[in-house]
Amino acid sequence: MGPLLNLSNFLFIILVILFTYYLISKRKIILKILSLNIFIIIIVAFFPTGTLGLKYLEKDFIVKKEYKNIKNILVLSGADERIIASISLAYQYPDAKIFYVGGNAFLVQNNDNDDPTIAKKFYNKLNFDMDRIVFIGKSRNTIENFKEIKELDLKYSETILITSAYHMKRSMMIAKNQGVKVIPYPAKPISRSKTPLLNSYQAFDVVTNLSKFNTFFREILGILAFKITSYT
Q1: What pTM, to 2 d.p., does this model score?
Q2: Which residue range forms the structural domain that includes residue 31?
Q3: Strand pairing of 159-164 and 183-187?
Q4: In what order do the strands lie in the sheet with 72-76?
Q5: What is the pLDDT of residues 115-138, one digit of tens each?
Q6: Which residues contact 26 (CB under 8 A, 6 or more apart)?
Q7: Is 133 exposed, middle or buried (0-12, 13-18, 19+ CB in 10 A)?
């Protein structure tokens, strides 16, 4: 994720710029903008705004206890919990094959540190049968992921898609646009906690709040960008 897609980075950069400019100019309008910037940082850092945003992204996707006739398990590259979810499903459906889809999103490529290479090491460490996995490592983003998935020509009624719960909304939008009708399987929903709000503040963490909001902000930007480009 680029630094300007990380909202907290952006807010703190603007904070420094505004503060410096105010010291030089002493203009009241800059002070007002600076105060607004500080207010936004406080809201994002000290309140569960990110968690609420993630709940919005995740609310339409619930894992079922059992699925029928699963033959293909698609895993979008990324967080480790996606790999763990794929292994769990593979043990439930011993005839299913895993397709790990992803590459390297960075401009400067490093084949020793791309997602498929890291994933292979992860699967190996968990002693999983590598003959049951196909690694597809040319795509750099979610849209390219689904272009490669479409080329696999799988029977979609037998195909489950695994990605992080917060990323599923955008993934299913892109899948529909590409004509890929897969079964969503969100990995590790991070917002579905029944902990009372008062109790949650016992584990209060500004960094965690900022991180969750950054994740939500990035996904919303991705959704908006996809909608704009798909209608032009």
Answers
A1: 0.83
A2: 1-48
A3: parallel
A4: 133-136, 97-101, 72-76, 159-164, 183-187
A5: 888 899 999 999 999 999 999 877
A6: none
A7: buried
C-alpha angle 188-189-194 in degrees, rounded to nearest 5: 120
Determine the Cα–Cα distance for residues 91 and 79; give it in Å rounded to an integer.
20
Angle subtended by helix axes 49-58 and 165-177, to nearest 10:
40
pLDDT band at 57 (very low <50, low <70, confident <90, very high): very high
* Per-residue tokens: 93: 């459906």
* Element spanning 74, H or E: strand 72-76
CA gap 23, 37 in Å, rounded: 16
- Domain finish residue from 169, 187, 205: 187
Q: What are phi and psi of 71, to 5 degrees?
A: -115, -25
The verdict on 39 and 79 lying in the same domain is no
